[in-house]
Specification:
Length: 138
C-alpha cells in the first residue's frame, strides 16, 4: 500500500556515523563540517538519480531530527545552489523538515529550563537553580 503513495529512502548521515561506513577502511573519510557532509549527500543523490533517473522528478523532502538541524539546511542549500547538480538530475526539492533540531546549541541550551518549566516537567525552583547555573557556566 505505502509503495503506491511514494518513495522513502533512509540515509545515515554523515559518513561513518551510526550504521553508515566507508568502503575505504584504511583511510576512513571523516566529515569535518556540515558543508562537507552536504557535498557527500549531493554526490550520493547524484549517483542515486543516475541509477534511477525516473525518481528525480518525484518531489524530494529532506527530513531528520536532532543533529540533522545542522546537516539538513546545508544539504538543501547545496542542492539549491549547485547548478551542475540541478541540471544533471532535474532534482525536485520541495521542502525540508527538522524535528527537535540541534540548530544553535549555545542559544538552545540556555532555554531548555524555560521550555521544561512551561511544559510542566520541572518546578519553578529547579528552573531558577538551572538558570543560575547557566549564568555561572557562561
Amino acid at each position: 500500500f505505502l509503495e503506491s503513495m511514494g518513495h522513502m529512502l533512509f540515509i545515515d548521515q554523515p559518513l561513518n556515523v551510526g550504521f553508515s561506513y566507508s568502503g575505504n577502511r584504511t583511510g576512513t573519510q571523516q566529515v569535518s563540517s556540515s558543508n562537507e557532509g552536504a557535498l557527500h549527500l549531493v554526490n550520493f543523490l547524484y549517483n542515486f538519480y543516475r541509477e534511477w533517473p525516473k525518481l528525480a522528478a518525484s518531489p524530494l523532502y529532506i527530513t531528520g531530527e536532532s543533529f540533522a538541524g545542522h546537516y539538513i539546511p546545508a544539504f538543501a542549500r547545496e542542492i539549491l545552489l549547485n547548478e551542475t547538480f540541478k541540471a544533471a538530475t532535474k532534482v525536485n526539492l520541495k521542502g525540508v523538515a527538522i524535528g527537535d533540531g540541534w540548530v544553535d546549541p549555545i542559544n538552545q541550551f540556555n532555554y531548555y529550563d524555560s521550555l521544561l518549566y512551561s511544559a510542566g516537567i520541572i518546578s519553578n525552583k529547579f528552573r531558577e537553580v538551572s538558570t543560575w547555573m547557566q549564568t555561572r557556566a557562561c
